[in-house]
Amino acid sequence: MRIMLRCLLLFLFAALCGHAEAQSFRVCNGYGCTFQTPVTLTPADRSRIASIMAGGRVSPAAERAAVRRAVQVFEQRSVAVIGAVDRPKMDFGKGRERGQMDCVDESTNTDHFLRYLQGAGLLHHHRVARRDSRGSFVDGRYPHFTAVLKDGSGTSWAVDSWYEPGGGPPDVMLLSEWHRRGYGGVR
What we know:
alpha+beta, 5 helices, 40% helix, globular, disordered N terminus
């Protein structure tokens, strides 16, 4: 009986404290996910992110502002682990350079992080939607990808960290507005 009780208590402890385990990601870099570097959020990282996201409970706009800051924390951690500061945008012809990220890397990493926020119950006004893209060369724009959030009214929001160096604030804007931008690499 004691063994069963002990097992039950250990099971309940693990179930209740499971969220305290480290969250790990395979962070894409090197352009087109050439490299996938394992990055684990420390308890301090997760606590800081949860604190940031707590400020977003007030409204959808506050949550988007919190997401912007939380993505920065995630990217700062990633840059520290990879050991290279990602330059803003991308340098054509500089692929396969560890730590450098194109929009495929950036949007994939941001999408995975947003899914972590959602799974951890830290998103209250948005849910993660499928990544999106714009540009097709024919329209004068290079193809470009972004992570996407959708709010309770069904409005989609781009979360695009490509324009800033690793750890810089991502653009969080209406997806429809994001679709109209991007000629000549200009925001």
